[in-house]
Amino acid sequence: MGALPGAGLPEGEAKARAVREMFDTIAPRYDLINRIITFGLDRRWRRTTVDALALAQGSTVLDVACGTGDLCIDLGSRAYLPVGIDLSIGMLTHARTSAPLVQTDALAMPFPAASFDGAVSGFALRNVVAWGSLFTELARVVRPGGRISLLDVDSPANPVLRVGHSMYFGHVVPRIGSLLSDRDAYRYLPKSVAYLPPAETTLSLLRDAGFVDTRRQLLSGGITQLITATRSPT
User: Is residue 203 situated within a structural domain?
Assistant: First the structure.
């Protein structure tokens, strides 16, 4: 699976390769384990992500790192027209959506400028090699005035919740992963929170890329975060 922890968190091309191999490996039981380790809350978080787009019915929406297509399904249920991309062929092979899917790198998407009315992602940001490059690419493929809604993990600000959250995702989740899927992958996923930059850095990178109305919302006591923004009209 490449250079995954405990050899330390990989960077650059090594990170991209390790992430792709990891998701290829865990794809068959990815959805099942998500439901178990989040107690089903992942469904609520994705619905909130889609609601935050606030686009007209029939809008075309890109799902970045779509995995097995959960967000594509939610987008379709709200009368959006989803298109999914993912680096992992294993995840796309196990996809349960009828939306068009493309295997590609989110940092170099094969779409013309302003191809989409909006974009979403679910738990993908910490697996991207370069956030600034991703936001620049999203600004290119999302039309002026379009919306993005990006969901990922976070750590609660409350000290008691933060300790409990750390123990659960640092110790319980890897054990569940070991029993049902791949131990190394589910050791990596909790540690990958370290890739996330500070909130203001994230919003600043979005503004630099060409987004306005940048916002960050904490969900479920701060164990997840939702980042939204509008593509600048100019």
Answer: yes
